[in-house]
């Protein structure tokens, strides 16, 4: 399928596979996200991708109070930072500077493991936004030390949506 986004106003009329593909381009492939958001796409029209992403942010935030199991499944759709095998082309490009071999890469793998042990059912999600590996690893350490799973859920939701906003901007520019 195409790596471009359809006009957001057309989302309600698109076939389900195109709707899910659009969600996958913005976020990561996630059947639980599809289940949560497809009804929204059928009932609301969005004039921009930022307005769609903000509506999705609201839906995800509501899950923090009602269904953390589904929320965890959605958050865990993001690949671990620094993983060599990443299914999403967007994630692979965003994490390029975090991948590699050597001592720092091993430290990143260890931090991912420590994070997931500290916060069972979650995966560390952050908007990398060009920041170097040491800065990201410091952020991981701080969040692990904080030890607040509710704060982690909120940070992950906001990071996912910030990533989606960035992707939307890039994908819309690429078709111009």
Q: Can you tell me about this structure?
A:
With 176 residues, the chain is an all-alpha fold. The chain has one domain: UraD-like (Orthogonal Bundle), CATH 1.10.3330. It is built from 8 helices and no strands. The radius of gyration is 16 Å and the shape is globular. The mean pLDDT is 89.
Helix percent reads 55-70%
CATH class: Mainly Alpha
Number of domains: 1
How would you classify the quaternary structure?
single chain
Looking at the overall shape, the CATH architecture is: Orthogonal Bundle
Instruction: Find the count of extended strands (DSSP E, 2+ residues).
Output: 0
What is the CA-based Rg, rounded?
Answer: 16 Å
Structural class: mainly alpha
Distance between the termini: 18 Å
Uncertain segments: none
CATH superfamily: Oxo-4-hydroxy-4-carboxy-5-ureidoimidazoline decarboxylase
Overall geometry? globular
Q: Total helix count?
A: 8
At CATH level 3, the topology is UraD-like
Strand content: under 5%
Mean pLDDT, to the nearest integer, reads 89
Largest sheet: none
The SSE string, one letter per element, is HHHHHHHH
